[in-house]
Amino acid sequence: MKLLICSLLFAASIPAFAANETHPQYVGSVSINPCQDAKILADWYSKIGLETHESGGGFYGFFKTPAGPFFFGIHPKRSDAPKASSASVAVVFRIGDYERYISEVAKRGVTPISVEQDGEGRFAHFRDPDGNEITLWGN
C-alpha cells in the first residue's frame, strides 16, 4: 500500500506526467458491489465520514476535492452476489487533522485494526463489514 502511495506521489510530482491528458488525474469514484445488504455498508461508511443517500436500494454520495468531485457508491446487493466478499476493494482516503479524525471515528464505534507512520504520514487501517481494506491517511 505504501509503495502505491509513494509511486503516485512521485508520479504526480513530475510535471510532464501530471500534465499528460492520457493518464488519470485523480481517483474520481469508488464503487462497491456488496455481498450483503447495502445499508450495512452505508451505515459503516457513515461512521468514517462518508455520507450517502439511498436510491433504488443502493447508497450514493460525493464530495468535492481540489482535483475534482469524488463519487462513492454502494450498489444494491445483487441476487447472484457471493455469500462472502472477495475483499478486493482497497481504498485510501486522505484526511486532514489525523488525531481528531481518528478520535471522532472511534467515538462512532470504528477502531483501526492497525496503524503505522512513515515519511508520508500516518495510516489507520480498517476493514469494512464486507472485508474491504480502508485506510485513513493524514499527518
Q: Could you explain the architecture of this structure?
A:
The chain has 139 residues and is of the alpha/beta class. 26% of the residues lie in helices and 32% in strands. It contains four helices and eight strands. The strands form two sheets. A four-stranded mixed beta sheet has the order 1-4-3-2. The model is unreliable at 1-20 (pLDDT under 50).
Q: Can you describe this structure in just a few lines?
A:
With 139 residues, this protein is an alpha/beta fold. The protein has helices spanning 2-12, 15-19, 38-47, 98-107, and strands at residues 29-32, 53-55, 58-65, 68-74, 90-94, 114-118, 121-127, 133-138.
Key phrases:
alpha/beta; 2,3-Dihydroxybiphenyl 1,2-Dioxygenase, domain 1; four-stranded mixed sheet; 32% strand; 139 residues; disordered N terminus
Strand order of the largest sheet: 1-4-3-2
How many individual helices?
Answer: 4
**Structural class by SSE content:** alpha/beta
Which CATH C-level class is it? Answer: Alpha Beta
Task: Examine the secondary-structure arrangement and name the CATH architecture.
Answer: Roll
Helix content: 25-40%
- Give the strand content: 25-35%
Low-confidence stretches: 1-20
